[in-house]
Amino acid sequence: MKIKTVAQCTLEEVLKAWNKGFEGYFVEINMTAEMFLQRLVGEGLSPDHSIVVFDHNEPIAIVMNGFRTIDGKKIAWNGGTGISPAYRGKGVSRLLMEETLAIYKQENVEMGTLEAIKENQIAIALYQKYGYVITHHLLFLSGEYEVKTESTATLHIATIRPEQLAQLSFYQEDVPWQCSWQSVKQGEAKVFYNDNKEALGYMLYKTVWNKHGEVERILLYQLVILEEGNVDLLPQFLASITTDKVHLTTVNFLASNPATNYLLKHGLKVTTEQVQMLKRF
C-alpha cells in the first residue's frame, strides 16, 4: 500500500477515497466535489497534512487533518477518517493512525482532537489505544421551535462578526472544531448585555432563508449563557433572530450545556450523539 497527501492526489481520487471510506457508516457523508472543497476551506483542513491510502492505483482510505492555535497551543483536528468497506478490519486503520500521529509530531502539535459517533465503539477503542481519551459528550438536536417568552428583562444586543468573538474576554475558545468561529466565518454572532453593560451570553449561528425572504432554518453552533442562573434568558436570545416558528438544528452542543437541556424541554430531539476525544502530546 502507498500513502499520498491529499495535495498529491487528484480531486477525483480524494472524493472516491472519502465517499467509499464512509460507505455504510453510521451517518451517510457522501460528498460532491463542491461540498468537499467548501468543507476543506471552511473548516481549515490542510491538503498537505491530510492523507489518502492507495492499494495499487485504487484510493481506499483517507484522513483529513486541520491545525489551529487555540489558547496559545497548537491543536490538530482529525476531520474524518474513512476506510473502504472491503479494507476494514485489515490493519488499514492502524496505518492511518500511525501516519497521522507522525504528522502531528512533525508539526509540533500539543493536542489532537476528534469526534466519533457514540455507537462506533470500534473506532473509539482504536483511538483510545493510541492515547485519546473521551472528554465530552456532544449532541446534534433538531426540531421545530417557537419562542414563548414573558420575560421583561432588558437585553442590549450587539451584532458582531464571528471573528470578533475571539476578542471578547468571556469568549470560551474550548469548543468542538466545527463550532468555533474559525469554522463559521460565514455565520452571524450576537452578544447580550444587561443595563450595566455586563455580558450575559452570546450566540454563533447561521440563518437559512427561503425564497420568500423568511427564516426557514437556524443552525446553532454556540448558545452560551455566562451564568447558569440566567437560563431563563435563552428565549430572548433566540427571539433576537426570529419570533416565528422555525426549524432549529444544533451542531455538537455539549450535553452539559444548559442550553441543550432547555432546547430538549422545548421540542427538539436528539438526532446524533458523538464523543469528543483528546490526545496530549
Which shape, going by the Cα principal axes? elongated
Number of helices: 6
How do the SSEs run, as a string of H and E?
A: EHHEEEHEHEEEEEHEEHE
CATH class of the largest domain: Alpha Beta
Roughly what fraction of the amino acids lie in strands?
A: 35-45%
Based on secondary structure, the structural category is alpha+beta
The CATH topology of the largest domain: Aminopeptidase
Distance between the termini: 28 Å
The total domain count is 2
Query: Roughly what is the average pLDDT, rounded to an integer?
Result: 94
Number of strands: 13
- Poorly predicted sequence stretches spanning 5 or more consecutive residues: none
Helix content: 10-25%
CATH architecture of the largest domain: 3-Layer(aba) Sandwich
Largest beta-sheet characterization: 13 strands, mixed
Structure description:
With 281 residues, the protein is α+β, with helices and mostly antiparallel strands. It has two domains: 2-109, Aminopeptidase (3-Layer(aba) Sandwich), CATH 3.40.630; 141-275, Aminopeptidase (3-Layer(aba) Sandwich), CATH 3.40.630. Helix content is 21%, strand content 37%. The chain is built from six helices and 13 strands. It has helices at residues 11-21, 33-42, 92-106, 121-129, 234-239, 258-265, and strands at 2-5, 51-55, 58-70, 73-83, 111-117, 133-145, 156-160, 188-193, 199-209, 215-225, 246-250, 253-254, 269-280. Strands 1, 2, 3, 4, 5, 6, 7, 8, 9, 10, 11, 12 and 13 form a 13-stranded mixed sheet that branches. Strand 9 and strand 10 form a beta hairpin. The two termini are 28 Å apart.
